[in-house]
Amino acid sequence: MFFQFIHSIDEVPKQIWDDLNQNQALFCSYPFLAALEQSGSVGGDTGWIPHHLVAYQDEAVIGILPMYKKSHSYGEYVFDFAWAEAYQRYHKQYYPKLVNAIPFTPVTGTRLLTNNKTDPVKLLEKMYLYIKQQLPALDASSVHFLFPFEKVSQQLQGLGAVQRRSVQFQWFNRGYQHFDDFIATFTARRRKSVRKERQKIAQQELTVKRFHGETLTSVEMDFFYLCYCQTYLKRSGHSGYLNKSFFTNILENMRQNILLVIASHNDTPVAGALYLYDQTQLCGRYWGAIEDFDGLHFECCYYQGIEFCIQQNLASFNPGTQGEHKILRGFEPIFCYSNHRLDDPSFQDAVSRFVKQEAPGIEAYKISAAEVLPFKKSQD
Description:
There is one protein chain. By secondary structure, this protein is an alpha+beta fold. 38% of the residues lie in helices and 24% in strands. It folds into 2 domains: 2-168 and 334-371, Aminopeptidase; 174-314, 3-Layer(aba) Sandwich (Aminopeptidase). It is built from 11 helices and 15 strands. The strands form 2 sheets. The chain has an 11-stranded mixed beta sheet with strand order 2-5-6-8-15-9-14-13-12-11-10, with helices on both faces. A 4-stranded antiparallel beta sheet has the order 1-3-4-7, with helices on both faces. Strand 13 (281-289), helix 10 and strand 14 (316-318) form a beta-alpha-beta unit. Helix 2 packs antiparallel against helix 9 (244-253), helix 7 packs across helix 10 and helix 8 runs antiparallel to helix 9. The longest helix is centred in the C-terminal third of the chain and has 27 residues, at 345-371.
């Protein structure tokens, strides 16, 4: 067995990549990662340089870790800026670093692709040890594994990569037939609040429609991209991490995995929310608006997504990271995981101590968030 870093997804034939993606992991899929690279949303001067690790056995590809060489920490949603500042104080370089992650996508999922003849546990161990050995040659300070499954995170912890937890909020489908079945599990006060929130949409002469599959066209996507850019400009002073070519690419190659919600005021589109989904999960990714309306964000980004999950019998809905306002709308706190290995032993020890110190606060936050969920006390 031997390993090689590649600098473009195109260095692995699409059919081989697809065959290794046994679980059809949406964000590790060839079309999604290729869209990022082909559009220039990663690579070049973006600070996300493709550096995928490929495992070979007898010249055949048996495993892939999607990886990137990073010159900053933006677009990761696992915040390590303080670690970078500590390196700077000691006149050391934190960047570049390696990340096993999906750019701009804080969604727990598959991070290693392999075939059904290869033990993924043993393969991950060998790939991890290879990465650790290669850090000096790559001039990289560290390697980070972002949003792996808990079981994988525990394995990485056992290999010496510090485990860090964070909290997200997710919706779970407990066999609901209609949206009203879901809010029937709420207390009367919270149920009334949600209904009032949704009623505001019609009261403001707004209509909301869902587009997916063959009903989704470039007209809706072009409008959404306008909303996306305008909202990023307003909040962050730039037009967003993803360019128009990315959205055009996924519309062409991933149409069956896209849900686009468009809100209109008196038949004029004013806002949109873009989701990606597979057979089990809906992921809310981006929101944008060219006009502000009361409660429209909640309708487009949460309630429409919940209704879609119920209609499509999807098991869960990840609406994106952060946002305590999700709790009162039935999104439950869950742990997410990341793992970190710094090549400098003293900094590795410092990070380990930092993570241990923050852990009780993370756990307490999850517990306190669960206490304000809107469900009736009898709700499991």
